[in-house]
From TrEMBL:
Pfam families: FeThRed_B (PF02943). The keyword 4Fe-4S applies. Heterodimer of subunit A (variable subunit) and subunit B (catalytic subunit). Heterodimeric FTR forms a complex with ferredoxin and thioredoxin. Coiled coil: none annotated. The keyword Oxidoreductase applies. This is Ferredoxin-thioredoxin reductase catalytic chain, chloroplastic. InterPro entries: FTR_bsu, FTR_bsu_sf. GO terms for molecular function: 4 iron, 4 sulfur cluster binding; ferredoxin-thioredoxin reductase activity; metal ion binding; oxidoreductase activity, acting on iron-sulfur proteins as donors. PANTHER family: FERREDOXIN-THIOREDOXIN REDUCTASE CATALYTIC CHAIN, CHLOROPLASTIC.
Length: 148
């Protein structure tokens, strides 16, 4: 059984451990510690966005909803603090400049062009960690991140 651990920017870092090789390890798979809890309004906005974009792009949420939840909260935190949903799974020297530039605002250019989401928020069906859902509730987000 594969072990999946969401390290998220949210609190630790984004990491995956699995018996099988993880999907496309990325040197960018790191997240930044969230400084503040995102507002519920922004979490809800990013939750709805994620559901809509998954359906539109034909991608699915991770089989481990905690991964999805952490990324959504990371996006919401950036929306609150930067005014834009900057990808939470990368390190930036200047987050404000990156948010203004837009390349890594969700959905980022790699996702839009090649369906590459290194945060594992949007997974193509062939991904080992793809679940079968394109929906997540606010309650699920709260429950799966309650101890983070
Ligand atoms: Fe980050 Fe891009 Fe995935 Fe959005 S689509 S969570 S910006 S990697």
């Amino acid at each position: 059984m594969k072990a999946l651990q969401a390290s998220t920017s949210y609190n630790v870092g984004f990491g995956i451990s699995a018996a099988a090789p993880p999907p496309r390890p990325s040197r960018h798979r790191h997240v930044i510690l969230a400084q503040v809890e995102p507002t519920e309004k922004s979490v809800e906005i990013m939750r709805k966005f994620s559901e809509q974009y998954a359906r539109r792009s034909g991608t699915y949420f991770c089989v481990e909803k905690g991964v999805t939840s952490v990324v959504i909260k990371g996006l919401a935190e950036h929306k609150d603090t930067l005014g834009a949903p900057l990808c939470p799974c990368r390190h930036y020297d200047d987050k404000y400049a990156e948010a203004q530039q837009g390349f890594w605002n969700c959905p980022c250019v790699p996702m839009r062009e090649r369906k590459e989401c290194h945060c594992m928020l949007f997974l193509t069906p062939d991904n080992d960690f793809a679940g079968q859902e394109q929906a997540i509730t606010l309650e699920e987000i709260k429950e799966t991140t309650a101890n983070m």
